[in-house]
């Protein structure tokens, strides 16, 4: 890879400030910049690194105004973080060679329909009446069970499992250990133990979804569990049976969503958020890490935190009171003693 600042600016529709012929051959974090590297600045907390970085080119937002002289060449763009993502994607595409073909140690059923330019790795299993779309990559140990479908240009990393009758859309990325369509947690208490409730539905993952390592999307008891278009789930996320996760919602690690919950579009959940079952959460709800959402969230565009989750500003006020509880408790006891001695 070798480009100059002028070429990069043209690709990103940005403006060069400095040497347009500055050459870039690699990427680096701004605090670890080296000559020939391109980096970016989007968080103002990292601004102090800009004035010392050895990187040749730095992407910055158009409205950024440096407080000191900058030796690196700047490229001003609308969104530095989004633009570096575009460059990294381009770099990955140029460096990665898609694999094609069925490995001799793979097991593919005769009734399976395999598209063009598909890769099926060693020890992968593709079951009866499975459909695999064009350009999809199934790495080592992937299992796609009977009557399941996987769309075009997907990547299923090692040891991903797609259970029977489940559907995965186009351009989906499933990371190692991810499981689509495992049984939901359904058990009926009976004398002496629990009776398993059969989970006869399926799970549907729509287009442009990415799901992290060791995350699970359970199949429905009846009907379908949905992960809608554009959803991004981190590692170790649990989506229970009959949930419906709205378009472009994102969830950080260890989020757990209980059964039959409907989550709106463009929601954001921090790490370890827990969501109760059989509730609805409005569009563009943003939930802080470790929040416990126990009831419906009816108002959209809301930031909530705490357990039980509440409006972030109210939580901040409650936290201020909580920190002062020992002093308040002492004051109350002093008043009680004073009143008792009168």
UniProtKB/TrEMBL annotation:
Which EC class is this protein assigned? transferase
GO BP term (any one):
lipid A biosynthetic process
What PROSITE patterns does this protein's entry cite?
A: HEXAPEP_TRANSFERASES (PS00101)
The reaction(s) this protein catalyses: a UDP-3-O-[(3R)-3-hydroxyacyl]-alpha-D-glucosamine + a (3R)-hydroxyacyl-[ACP] = a UDP-2-N,3-O-bis[(3R)-3-hydroxyacyl]-alpha-D-glucosamine + holo-[ACP] + H(+)
GO terms for cellular component: membrane
Q: Which UniProt keywords apply?
A: Acyltransferase, Lipid A biosynthesis, Lipid biosynthesis, Lipid metabolism, Repeat, Transferase
Summary of the function given for this chain in its UniProt record: Catalyzes the N-acylation of UDP-3-O-acylglucosamine using 3-hydroxyacyl-ACP as the acyl donor. Is involved in the biosynthesis of lipid A, a phosphorylated glycolipid that anchors the lipopolysaccharide to the outer membrane of the cell.
Q: Which family does it belong to?
A: Belongs to the transferase hexapeptide repeat family. LpxD subfamily.
Name of the protein this chain belongs to: UDP-3-O-acylglucosamine N-acyltransferase
Q: Which gene encodes it?
A: lpxD
